[in-house]
Specification:
With 482 residues, the protein is α+β, with helices and mostly antiparallel strands. The chain is built from 17 helices and 13 strands. The mean pLDDT is 89.
């Protein structure tokens, strides 16, 4: 295709001098960073066409990479599902005669720099092509009955944890649920109880690993007087990797994660480094925090917890499921994911009026926070509606766990854990009292619909996972004392 007939690159600031400031700005607040880039691009377009729509992609420089930030739900879903059976409406090859395939948007090269040192192969997250497809089929079979294998364990751990929730006790909701998430994830994946010495060691090691991975000083320095967080994190990862390999070599066959019988112990050990990582625990806790806030704290004449119980077993279960999905949609714990473009592609909106060229070698950043609030797909997109997914035929699912063949492997497991924890809390006749006053947090939850990005940046921590910056303090109320 002649160069003159190609659409332009995405609008945005891409000078070399701005790279460092953009990376720091993104690390501080992705929402504020991306919103400002969209606004700059819109201003540039409006100077040419006053009726120009919101741009489908904006250009940024993050970690010295050219990045096209995508906030359209339709385009995010299409990129995630490339290689499936659905026709492509918003993606085409830039060169005539080429085709778009499942190799066009690759995971491994996008994440290798950020993840390979911390979660090395074999790791399903860093696989592409037929290797990924084959291993994904194996893992899906391995985890088919996993929720059934862990059901009693999750409920028992939750019941034991809730024993400490005495009536009138005051809790930091996120920190308490993070402690519960550590107990559950290390139990279901490693068969460790909280009293086991190895439990505390792995938790501490995973925290050290995370600090190294997300250090703003991304260089390994090891001197007699000082070691960088990255250097400490890498050493800890090596020790933890060996510890997990040894753990699974000696584990009993009835360890929940081993019972599927499809994956080798070495494969399970390697991937368990990520399953039990601090970032996985924080993501679980963040989603749990948002869901608990919606169920117990959202100001209503009748709180959602009581509505779920009044609906009866079947309808109540459906309402709880819908609440979890709606919370995922509005408050995804991970703000987005990346793909590396393997050929020149043209991205467009459904009407083909807005088109941009994304060259080979660029990353596309799929920004779930905006895509999940796309008004083209969701009525009242910024509003929390508990019943939204009760009758969900034709409704776009949330993107919190991705979509397509590379969606999060633990998606069903985390949803099951969340539903079990909440149901156990309801069965214990526990209610929580407290207020969510921060405007940015209320916007994150969907309790207020007109919240500016400055409030989001002020009130939310978005990396590595989205959660309130300040504690949500709650008081426990037991409506019936055992």
């Amino acid at each position: 295709m002649a160069e003159s007939s190609l659409p332009p690159l995405p609008k945005g600031d891409f000078s070399a001098l701005s790279t460092l400031s953009q990376s720091l700005s993104f690390h501080s607040s992705p929402e504020s960073f991306i919103a400002s880039r969209i606004e700059q691009s819109r201003t540039q377009l409006e100077s040419i066409n006053p009726d120009a729509p919101k741009p489908i992609a904006v250009r940024a420089r993050i970690l010295n990479r050219n990045v096209a930030v995508i906030s359209s739900s339709e385009l995010c879903n299409e990129i995630l599902k490339v290689g499936g059976n659905a026709p492509l409406k918003c993606i085409r090859p830039a060169e005539e005669g080429e085709t778009i395939s499942r190799e066009t948007f690759a995971v491994a090269p996008a994440y290798r720099e950020l993840m390979a040192d911390w979660f090395p192969p074999p790791n399903l997250l860093l696989e592409d092509g037929e290797t990924h497809a084959e291993k994904r089929r194996m893992w899906d079979a391995q985890l088919t009955d996993f929720p059934n294998h862990i059901a009693r364990t999750v409920r028992a751990i939750t019941e034991q944890h809730l024993e400490a929730w005495r009536s009138d006790a005051k809790l930091d909701l996120y920190e308490d649920l993070k402690a519960l998430s550590w107990k559950i994830l290390l139990s279901v994946f490693l068969d460790l109880v909280p009293s086991d010495k190895k439990h505390a060691e792995i938790e501490a090691s995973q925290e050290t690993l995370l600090r190294g991975q997300f250090s703003l000083f991304p260089v390994s320095v090891n001197t007699p007087f000082w070691r960088s967080a990255r250097s400490r994190g890498l050493d800890t990862r090596k020790k933890l990797q060996g510890q997990l390999a040894d753990h699974f070599n000696k584990a009993e066959a009835n360890c929940p994660i081993l019972r599927g019988g499809k994956c080798t112990r070495s494969e399970i050990a390697s991937n368990s480094l990520l399953f039990t990582s601090s970032i996985s625990v924080k993501a679980c806790a963040a989603l749990m925090t948002a869901t608990f806030a919606n169920i117990f704290l959202k100001p209503e004449d009748l709180c959602l917890a009581d509505r779920i119980l009044q609906e009866g077993p079947e309808n109540g279960k459906a309402l709880l499921r819908s609440t979890i999905l709606e919370t995922e949609r509005l408050s995804p714990p991970v703000v987005g994911i990346m793909r590396r473009v393997q050929q020149d592609v043209v991205l467009c909106d459904a009407s083909k009026t807005d088109q941009v060229l994304v060259p080979k070698g660029w990353d596309v950043w799929l920004y779930f926070v905006s895509a999940s609030r796309d008004p083209k797909l969701y009525p009242e997109p910024n509003k929390f509606i508990a019943e939204r997914y009760v009758a969900s035929e034709g409704l776009a699912p949330p993107l919190a766990f991705g979509a397509g063949s590379k969606s999060c492997l633990a998606k069903d497991t985390i949803r099951f854990i969340l539903q079990s924890v909440i149901q156990t809390t309801l069965d214990a006749k526990i209610r929580l009292q407290g207020e969510v006053g921060a405007k940015g947090v209320r916007g994150w939850l969907g309790w207020e619909t007109d919240v500016d990005v400055e409030a989001i940046a002020r009130d939310l921590k978005q990396l590595p996972c989205q959660r309130p910056k300040q504690p949500i303090m709650v008081q426990v109320v037991r409506t019936s004392e055992g």
